[in-house]
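Minutes, project huddle
Topic: does the predicted pose make sense with zinc ion bound?
PN asked that the exact inputs be recorded in the minutes so nobody has to dig through chat later. Recorded below.
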Amino acid sequence: MLIQTRSARHRLLRNAIFTICGSREPTTACLSDICRRAAKIAGRAKPWGHRHLYVLLHLDRYDADKYPITDELLKSLISLSGREATNGKRVVKVYAHQVRPFAVILMRSRKCARPSCHTHFVGLGNYCSDKCRTLYTKHLRKQAAKRKRRAELLRRRRAQRKRHTRRSR
Ligand SMILES: [Zn+2]
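Predicted holo structure (tokens), as shared on screen:
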């Protein structure tokens, strides 16, 4: 089995269908189209019925034991959604924990907050790593301290000038 728990399999199936149809309310036409293309990928002579796919999509309303999500269907749906999702996209390398190899990751790319870092995919938080966070927050703190010193220097100079002009009057 690709994924063990039924709810995880259901979620995977739903996400794959939503990705392919580009909507959370897929039309019958789209479901029929998916069935045809998925059957082709699976090498099945007889395609799945769109009604069957509809039932699987709304499995919470039906007796789930009667309608198992087979590996054959799930695999071809994932493959199909991967093709849709990667259409016009570039292949990049992703190093990640707990993601199976060749998984399709659908997420907006977000650059690491440290400007000189080349990482363009940040999950939670603003930095790609603790190293970047440390480096950049240190840099920001240094700059803030510099600004503060400069402001302090200017304030002192201004005060000195005032004293000087008062004295020379
Ligand atoms: Zn970074």
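Observations noted during the meeting:
- Residues 112, 114, 117, 119, 127-129, 132 surround zinc ion (CB under 6 Å).
- The first helix runs from residue 6 to 21.
No decisions taken; revisit at the next huddle.
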